[in-house]
Amino acid sequence: MKQIELDEVDLRLLDQLQRDAALSNQTLAERVHVSAPTCLRRVKRLWDSGLIQGQVALLNPERLAQTVGHGLQAIVEITLDRQGDEHLQSFEQRLIADPEVAMCWRVAPGPDFVLVVHVHDMPAYLALVQRLFTQDANVRNVKAFFSVKQSKMVPALSLGRRA
User: Fold this and answer.
1) How many whole angstroms separate alpha carbon 140 and alpha carbon 149?
2) What is the pTM of this model?
3) Is a pLDDT exceeding 80 seen at residue 50?
4) Cα–chain-centroid distance for residue 117?
């Protein structure tokens, strides 16, 4: 994919869209001080370039818990015995295909993967452990940390400041 040049208007657009992707084109244009047609054209360019890869609704976990229960969130570290590229890729594909794995990072040094998993309860977590880790002979170590409170969760990326 061709690299895109970003100017201050593009950065302001990206910043606003990370804050609220549901803004109307007119409101977005007003916030970044461009015309509505210019705004629409630039946002389309950002989508087409792959800089914007999706739009989601962020759910309020406390409000959702009132309806469906709190569930269980865990941060899981996984270390494999064999770290050859084919082993890492194969394991990674299994992880990202699982709907209860919300986030997956390959990391170094230390464990090979760090995951964030969301499950309904402890039996569901144990089923995930069986499905993804216990039955895989290449998994050497699994270390889980269970969330008791989420203090901050900001999905926005820092866009930095240009000189």
Assistant:
1) 29
2) 0.80
3) yes
4) 11
